């Protein structure tokens, strides 16, 4: 017990607190859901693991920020739900992997402020302009604490499913070796085309702009 307490106070263990795990049957397969609390903010995050995680080779992972509108309500305003579904399918097809579901709604501004930002977008602002008009940065999310979750699985090398260079840079700075970036280009449609173009133009996401 003393050893556990000492480890819990050391980096990266002090970043998160593990709570519990349980089976999560889904249409595409049965995942294991692991609950964590981010100690700095008190936010509750979830990791979904599938198959046997072999830490002797790079593990296929996804850092997915919560998006109620896209993930649960099937909104076409963003590509989040499409990316979530594809990432989980990729993990199953690969045979193993981990998806970190992070409670950072609306690029970190929260659900109600996201609705306010949507209203500004309805009036003509793009996603970055809407956040800034509300007094927020374009992207308020942090990924540093993810090292604590990955360390729980013993993961130090990853194949990261993302189009976002900030995620690659954040894991690299946290001493997680990103050996490969796996593109995740899903769900472009007339309702989110401008949204995706702004991601590429203003936030540096690795996406092609389509007029």
From TrEMBL:
Transmembrane segments: none annotated. Its EC number is 3.5.4.25. Residues 19-183 form the GTP cyclohydrolase II domain. GO terms for molecular function: GTP cyclohydrolase II activity. Binds 1 zinc ion per subunit. PANTHER family: 3,4-DIHYDROXY-2-BUTANONE 4-PHOSPHATE SYNTHASE, GTP CYCLOHYDROLASE II-RELATED. Catalyzes the conversion of GTP to 2,5-diamino-6-ribosylamino-4(3H)-pyrimidinone 5'-phosphate (DARP), formate and pyrophosphate. This is GTP cyclohydrolase-2. The gene is ribA.
């Amino acid at each position: 017990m003393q050893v556990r307490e000492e480890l819990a106070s050391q980096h990266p263990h002090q970043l998160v607190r593990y709570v519990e795990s349980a089976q999560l049957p889904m249409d595409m397969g049965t995942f294991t859901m692991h609950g964590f609390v981010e100690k700095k903010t008190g936010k509750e995050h979830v990791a979904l693991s599938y198959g046997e995680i072999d830490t002797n080779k790079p593990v296929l992972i996804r850092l997915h920020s919560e998006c109620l509108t896209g993930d649960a309500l099937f909104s076409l305003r963003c590509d989040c739900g499409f990316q979530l579904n594809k990432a989980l399918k990729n993990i199953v097809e690969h045979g193993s992997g981990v998806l970190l579901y992070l409670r950072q709604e609306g690029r970190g501004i929260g659900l109600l402020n996201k609705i306010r930002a949507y209203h500004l977008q309805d009036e003509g602002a793009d996603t970055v302009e809407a956040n800034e008009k509300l007094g927020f940065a374009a992207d308020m999310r942090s990924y540093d604490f993810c090292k604590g979750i990955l360390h729980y699985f013993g993961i130090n090398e990853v194949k990261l499913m993302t189009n976002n260079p900030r995620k690659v840079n954040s894991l690299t700075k946290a001493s997680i070796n990103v050996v490969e970036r796996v593109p995740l280009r899903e769900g472009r449609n007339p309702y989110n085309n401008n949204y995706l173009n702004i991601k590429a133009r203003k936030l540096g996401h690795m996406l092609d702009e389509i007029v």
